[in-house]
Amino acid sequence: MILCRLVKGDAAMRKPEDDLEQRIGRLPCWRRPVVLSPLTGGLTNISYVADDGREKFVVRCGEDIPVHHVFRDRERAASEAAHRAGLSPEIVHLEAGLMVMRHIEGRTFTEADLRADIGRLAPLLKRCHREVGRHLAGPPNFFSVFRVIRDYARSIVAAESPFAPDLPRYLEAAETLERQQAPMPVVFGHHDLLPGNVMDDGKRLWLIDWEYGGFGTPMFDLANLSSNGSFSEADDTALLDAYFEGETTPEIRRSFEAMKAASALREAMWAMVSDAHLHVPGADYKAHARDYLHRFDELMAR
Known about the structure:
Strand content: 5-15%
CATH class of the largest domain: Alpha Beta
Number of domains: 2
Strand order of the largest sheet: 1-2-3-5-4
Number of helices: 10
Shape: globular
Low-confidence stretches: 1-13
Number of strands: 10
Mean pLDDT: 92
CATH superfamily of the largest domain: Aminoglycoside phosphotransferase (APH), C-terminal lobe
Helix content: 40-55%
Distance between the termini: 55 Å
Radius of gyration: 20 Å
């Protein structure tokens, strides 16, 4: 049976998630009635674990989010390519606003896990950068953190955000950080390496949530991982040495340090835009923005 939160006898008290759960329960991919359990902690989408008594699945619910450059057809294509590359679970059903994937029995990473597992994360990123793009079908997506920052600034001004007065400083910093970037090959990256998007099933690591998957520079994924994991300088050295196989030049290191600050700034501005446009229960976007602004300021000071 489907888990349902309907208040009996009072249709006026129905919640949006009640209708969503009813819709999920009627999907044609189920072999038998499913029990739904909400997945907590997401900042963008509503997700559920669906259990049919034999197997578990994850149902991601969400429409396009143009203000964040999120388009579900591109996310689907990236997810399917990542599955073919062996990095992400299989998609078993798709329809407007819903994506059903096989469930991973494992634990979701924390920041401490990112720092502790550099030895496995660096090869995981190299595999992503080397293989996912080969399996991509359809129009390619492109990711540039500096273009995102500039577009977010326009959205923040339009929303009359309380963070808007500091935008000139952020945009000036972005210009400085962009000038520090070394030429790098174009690869297919994940671009959203928050701890919650890495999972360990006890045997191997998985990458999930490909909303921002696209072609770009490998430097952003490396810096994004470091920024989101609060890496120390020693952690950064270990990550770069593992990824570049001991050939980390001063130019690469300088580019990485600048991209790390840009990554923190992008995450902060993502939260500022989300504060005006998204409404996910339990998500405190202002607090998320302040957290990453603090990281950004520390990185700029370094």
